[in-house]
Amino acid sequence: MYQKDLFKDKVALVTGGRSGIGYGIAKQYLDLGAKVFICSRKEEPLKKAAEELSVFGPVAYTPCDIRKTDQIKALAEKIQAEYGKLDILINNAGGQFPAPAEQISENGWAAVINNNLNGTFYVSQEMYKSFFSQQNHGIILNIIANMHRGFPGMAHTGAARAGVENLTKTLAQEWAQHNVRINAIAPGTIQSSGLDTYPEPMQKRFAEIVEHNLMKRLGTVEDVANATMFYTSELSSYISGTTLYVDGIEHLSGDRMGLIDTLRTFMK
Ligand SMILES: NC(=O)c1ccc[n+]([C@@H]2O[C@H](COP(=O)([O-])OP(=O)(O)OC[C@H]3O[C@@H](n4cnc5c(N)ncnc54)[C@H](OP(=O)(O)O)[C@@H]3O)[C@@H](O)[C@H]2O)c1
Questions:
Q1: Is residue 119 within 6 Å of ligand 1 at its C-beta?
Q2: Is there an atom of ligand 1 within 6 Å of 48 CB?
Q3: Does the pLDDT value for residue 113 go beyond 80?
Q4: Domain holding 115: CATH number?
Q5: C-beta of residue 187 within 8 angstroms of C-beta of residue 219
Q6: Best substitution site from 27, 41, 116, 210 to test ligand 1's pocket, by max atoms within 8 Å of Cβ?
Q7: The predicted structure's pLDDT at residue 12
Q8: pTM of the predicted structure, to 2 decimals
């Protein structure tokens, strides 16, 4: 769909690039000529993913927990040593667990906020300081979630992602002086490895989501990757501070209470 050399000479960092959506994004960058760096916490699957991806182009990796600023600093140093620059940051790493709000523990709440909101900020700030502000260019894309009408069943991630959406607007303005563009993509329910982590009763829920979706399907990793390529290339050079929903219109018409209804059937 895109020109094969769209990202020639560009370097892209994809956090959480060892699996699912992040892996799909990394693969598309390689297909379109970029050099890629991936990170996530678990070294073995990360190494395996980097080996698989290297069939398509240059890939480097290092384990990094986006909640740890010392590890993020070390990540920036490794990118500098490997490629000498960074053009694109994809803040994709994240995770959450389904639970009715009244059952989320203090630790559970803090863990999701720390991962999905704080981690995104820490990585963005480090890459801005280490690369984008000095190079006078950079592109950040935040993968968030469809929380347009709230997120019943995952209050913590809804709050964290809403925070990232607002952060996207703030940083787009503050960092425009250094030619940095920042946008967000809000995926709906995407058929990826992330869905496998949800408990059995929730798997049935995914069939109901298809039923309610006006396009009658879940999203694919490629749907998100295709939008990411647009948002991080010159094709979107006058767009910053925005959120694009890749969700088959779920932010307008989807059933928001179905998840919490399902949870209440097995989480008393
Ligand atoms: N699939 C969907 O329907 C959907 C919808 C909306 C939003 N999203 C979001 O899109 C992103 C990708 O989702 P996915 O479906 O591809 O899920 P996934 O396969 O579980 O991918 C999440 C990735 O993030 C990494 N990660 C998690 N916490 C991290 C941390 N603290 N530091 C570094 N890496 C970390 C994981 O690797 P390690 O465990 O090895 O660290 C993993 O590679 C996630 O943020 C997810 O919440 C997904």
A1: yes
A2: no
A3: yes
A4: 3.40.50.720
A5: yes
A6: 41
A7: 99
A8: 0.98
